[in-house]
Design goal:
alpha+beta; 204 residues; elongated; Sortase, Chain: A; 8-stranded mixed β-barrel
Length: 204
């Protein structure tokens, strides 16, 4: 291969690398933009929910109809951490790219049992690295707003599914990957456990 051919090949490889880089940046920008749009739309729907809307027809003791993957569930707020994120049904990669995910089969907002929410450590649940015992967690759902108090945090392996089981009373479990600064698929899970503050319910 002569010098001229080598130069053309090098330029072609450089062009391909630049194109791939631009595509990757464009895709990341698309995911970020869609997440921001879905968060804004979810917040608007929560703030403008009216009696008779699909989100509010279920009574306090009734489970609403099974939600479709990615449908609106509610919102989580942790005031001290300035964390606020809309919660969607399911924990698929697509759903967790849009917001916090509600684990199917776990209790919903306002229902008895263990409400389990999952989020990515580098996006919506990034601030969980600073959470501590006693922090207040607010969950807004179809039946109103509910307050929880953080009781513990722990680090477990992915196969330790006992953290998903209901505890005594009404509980909230937050799950994200750990360590927080790990690059790639993190090997462990960071678990936050909180209990509902009895009587702290604010109807919509």
């Amino acid at each position: 291969m002569n010098a001229s051919s080598s130069t053309r090949v090098a330029k072609w490889v450089e062009f391909c690398l630049w194109a791939l880089g631009c595509l990757a940046l464009g895709y990341c920008a698309f995911l970020w933009g869609r997440a921001q749009y879905d968060q804004a739309e979810g917040n608007w729907a929560l703030e403008h929910a009216l009696p008779g809307d699909p989100m509010t027809v279920a009574g306090p003791s009734k489970r609403p109809p099974d939600r479709a993957e990615g449908s609106l569930v509610g919102r989580i707020d942790i005031p001290r951490l300035d964390l606020s994120a809309v919660v969607f049904e399911g924990t698929t990669d697509d759903t967790l790219a849009r917001g916090v995910g509600h684990l199917r089969g776990s209790a919903g907002p306002g229902e008895r049992g263990n409400l389990v929410l999952a989020g990515h450590r580098d996006t919506f649940f990034r601030e969980l690295r600073n959470i501590r015992e006693g922090d207040e967690v607010n969950i807004k759902g179809p039946q109103g707003e509910f307050e929880y108090k953080v009781e513990s945090t722990t680090i477990v392996n992915p196969d330790q599914t006992e953290v998903l089981e209901p505890g005594n009373g009404d509980t909230l479990t937050l799950i994200t990957c750990y360590p927080f600064r790990y690059i790639g698929n993190a090997p462990q899970r960071f678990i936050v456990r909180a209990s509902k503050i009895e009587g702290a319910r604010h109807p919509l």
